[in-house]
Amino acid sequence: MDLKEKFEQSVLHSRQLSKKPNNDELLKLYALYKQATEGDVKGDRPGGFDFKGAAKFDAWLELKQKGSSDCMEEYILFVNDLHAKYNR
Predict the structure, then answer these.
(1) Would you say the pTM of this structure is higher than 0.85?
(2) Closest C-alpha among 79, 78, 72 to residue 1
């Protein structure tokens, strides 16, 4: 199985946790997924009262210039850690 297939499997696995991850963990999953699939964040940072949108933008921005393969690998490892933490 190649990296992209492992990544896609981990995306499915991330939806099968017995407990919802905390907000920081969800932001990390989001940012790694977006950087792996779309590359660097584009557009303007949400403002006003869009706190969730701004947090997601900021998390993704922190991964700027990180390679797709690196993000896929980190995503896979992180999902494995979440399964170990929440599916005991």
Answers:
(1) yes
(2) 72
86 near 17, Cβ under 8 Å? yes
3-state secondary structure of 44: coil
- In order of their start, the domains of the chain are 3-86 (1.20.80.10)
Cα 25 from Cα 13, distance rounded (Å): 15
All residue ranges of the chain with pLDDT < 70 are none
Write the CA distances from 70 to 28, 39, 67, 76, 87, integer angstroms: 14, 11, 5, 10, 25
How far is Cα 54 from Cα 28, in angstroms, rounded to an integer? Answer: 14
Which residues neighbour 33 within 8 Å (Cβ) at sequence distance 6 or greater? 11, 71, 75
